[in-house]
From TrEMBL, chain A:
Family: Belongs to the dihydroorotate dehydrogenase family. Type 1 subfamily.
Gene3D superfamilies per UniProt: Aldolase class I
GO terms for cellular component: cytoplasm
GO biological process: 'de novo' pyrimidine nucleobase biosynthetic process; 'de novo' UMP biosynthetic process
One example GO MF annotation: dihydroorotate dehydrogenase activity
Listed name of the protein: Dihydroorotate dehydrogenase
Residue ranges constituting the Dihydroorotate dehydrogenase catalytic domain according to the UniProt record: 7-286
UniProtKB/TrEMBL annotation, chain B:
Cofactor(s), names only, from the UniProt record: [2Fe-2S] cluster; FAD
Keywords: 2Fe-2S, Electron transport, FAD, Flavoprotein, Iron, Iron-sulfur, Metal-binding, Pyrimidine biosynthesis, Transport
Binding site for [2Fe-2S] cluster: C223, C228, C231, C243
Family: Belongs to the PyrK family.
UniProt-recorded name of the protein: Dihydroorotate dehydrogenase B (NAD(+)), electron transfer subunit
Residue ranges of domain FAD-binding FR-type in the record: 2-102
Function: Responsible for channeling the electrons from the oxidation of dihydroorotate from the FMN redox center in the PyrD type B subunit to the ultimate electron acceptor NAD(+).
Source organism: Plebeiibacterium sediminum
GO biological process, one term: 'de novo' UMP biosynthetic process
Subunit annotation: Heterotetramer of 2 PyrK and 2 PyrD type B subunits.
Length: 304, 257
């Protein structure tokens, strides 16, 4: 028997494998394929104060070992989430996080306050790193003062686990990580997508309606692992690592770099059962390496 | 219920320079599959085929638990699929999407397919006939050389053909065919799948005669199961996912159609 349970700054998860926001719907989309209760946690689709239609089509482009997206936080708003979606998913025996985004600090506060009332939602992931919205989103997350301001404001009204999702589109990710830690973030998750772009050469047109979009998939993994390692050396709060995880080895790599838990994103599109395979693969790895507690992997890279 | 499953290729037959037809067998009884639904195929080998490919279900053979897919070689993914051989396995998520509606018994339906868009018309024609509807096929292609084998369609119903170069059937586009003109008024419903300009032209003619028209859209997709929200189409009720709320839409629901 191996212990897969982890502690995310006081919040216990049954294993370190979570799903990344925007890649797993509200969990329900995957019920035909896996038992959601087997996951350590799920982060449901980005939620804003008001309904958002998102960006026009096309919103996606396949790129070498990855993809660009420009969905733009399409969602029906937090009130709809509370009235229609929450009652359907609250029974999941997994850590349910709501990814919260906004155009203004007031939006973030109002949305977080509403989510705070939901008994079966133990945490939010504060999205200050979405590259696909004109106002807010990444604009907050790429400058330290605004990242700190929004985190501090939400911290005042949100009483449960506050995870802050960091953008890789910055000069020094540790500065932002330290900043949000300093104003009460319980954990940080990283990386959100990298700002990217693709052009259809035959048509001489941008591949995305928004021209630029967020790059994800295995192509970003080395960047993500590097950033997790840097942040691990800079902060004391737990790190939730993500960026191109396709299998258990990738997940373990993030943990060795310093992640307490991981999120699986784009891989869900290719294999809707990937999360379960990753959990099983971590168990196998631990058995082979005589590791009884998954926590031993966190920051466990050996430097000679 | 949707599932992800490895199927075995039992046949991969080239029908002309651009198209192959792949038969893939499941070890289990196939779930119920409706005309208009699709599969997401995982293409192995290579960084340039990272995402699955959505492919329309051409036909099913329930006696052999086979799904039959029509593949047009247009990019790296479809070229790799065209090379699959008997005994190879393919990883499918299926059945996905909604389905074409079936009108009341005794009515007439026009099934208009262009290019690889003919794919769902075969299974649709068969199911319509089984439900007492009278299907009429209208298939369009650039040239005779890349038109589908017509026998399978002819077994079900009359087949009208147009080719852009006039090498078979009526010269021109599907909208030039009598089925889309003099005879259109007899139809209860028009179904169409193919290149966007073709579908819009068909939808326009149907609208002029106030005939219901269902289109099968081929938007770019990532997940195929309604999670990523990439494949949206603009409808009168806002953005809808082509993968779960489509691919079949009544053109009345769509904006700018």
């Amino acid at each position: 028997m191996v212990n897969l349970g982890i502690d995310l700054n006081g919040l216990s998860l049954k294993n370190p494998v979570m799903t990344a926001s925007g890649t797993f719907g509200f969990g329900e989309e995957y019920e035909d394929f896996i038992n959601i209760d087997d996951l350590g946690g799920i982060v449901v689709k980005g939620t804003t104060l008001h309904h958002r239609e998102g960006n026009p089509y096309p919103r996606m482009a396949e790129t070498p070992s990855g993809m660009l997206n420009a969905v733009g936080l399409q969602n029906k708003g937090v009130d709809y989430f509370i009235s229609d979606i929450y009652p359907r998913i609250k029974h999941y025996k997994t850590g349910i996080f709501v990814n919260v985004s906004g155009s203004t600090i007031e939006d973030y506060i109002a949305t977080a306050e509403k989510i705070n009332e939901l008994e079966h939602i133990p945490g939010i992931e504060l999205n200050i790193s979405c590259p696909n919205v004109k106002e807010g989103g990444m604009a907050f997350g790429v400058h330290c003062p605004s990242a700190v301001a929004v985190t501090e404001a939400v911290r005042k009204v949100y009483k449960k686990h506050l995870m802050v999702k960091l953008s890789p589109n910055v000069t020094d990710v540790t500065e932002i990580a330290k900043g949000v830690e300093g104003v009460g973030a319980d954990s940080v998750s990283l990386i959100n997508t990298l700002l990217g772009m693709a052009i259809n050469v035959e048509k001489r047109k941008p591949a995305l309606s928004t021209i630029t979009g967020g790059l994800s998939g295995p192509c970003v993994k080395p960047v993500a692992v590097r950033m997790v390692w840097q942040v691990f050396n800079a902060v004391k709060i737990p790190i939730v690592g993500m960026g191109g995880i396709m299998n258990a080895y990738d997940a373990i790599e993030f943990m060795l770099a310093g992640a307490t838990a991981v999120q699986i994103g784009t891989a869900n599109f290719i294999d809707p059962t990937v999360t379960i395979k990753v959990i099983d693969g971590i168990k196998d790895y631990m058995t082979r390496h005589n590791i009884s507690d998954v926590n031993e992997l966190i920051g466990g890279m050996i430097i000679e | 219920m949707k599932k992800v499953e490895l199927l075995t290729v039992t046949k991969n037959r080239r029908i002309n320079k651009e198209y192959v037809i792949i038969h893939a067998a499941s070890n289990e009884k196939l779930p119920e599959i409706f005309p208009g639904q699709f599969v997401e195929i995982k293409v192995e080998n290579g960084p340039n085929t990272f995402l699955r490919r959505p492919i329309s279900i051409h036909e099913v053979d329930e006696s052999k638990n086979e799904i039959i897919l029509l593949i047009q070689e247009i990019g790296e993914g479809s070229r790799l699929l065209a090379k699959l051989r008997e005994g190879d396995t393919i990883d499918l998520i299926y059945p996905l999407g909604n389905a074409f509606s079936i009108p009341s018994k005794g009515s007439k339906a026009l099934l208009v397919g262009g290019g690889v868009g003919v794919a769902p018309m075969l299974i649709l024609g068969r199911v319509l006939k089984e439900n007492g509807v009278e299907p009429h096929f209208l298939l369009g292609a650039r040239s005779k050389e890349i038109l589908m084998e017509l026998d399978n369609y002819e077994k079900i119903a009359e087949v009208g053909v147009t080719t852009e170069d006039g090498s078979l059937g009526i010269k021109g586009f599907v909208t030039d065919h009598p089925l889309m003109n003099e005879k259109l008024g007899e139809m209860e419903i028009v179904y169409t799948c193919g290149p966007d300009p073709m579908m819009r032209a068909v939808a326009k003619k149907a609208k002029e005669k106030d005939i219901k028209c269902e289109v099968s859209l081929e938007n770019l997709m990532a997940c195929g199961i309604g999670a990523c929200l990439c494949c949206v189409v603009d409808t009168k009720d806002g953005h809808k996912c082509t993968c779960t709320e489509g691919p079949v839409f009544d053109t009345k629901e769509l904006k700018e159609w």
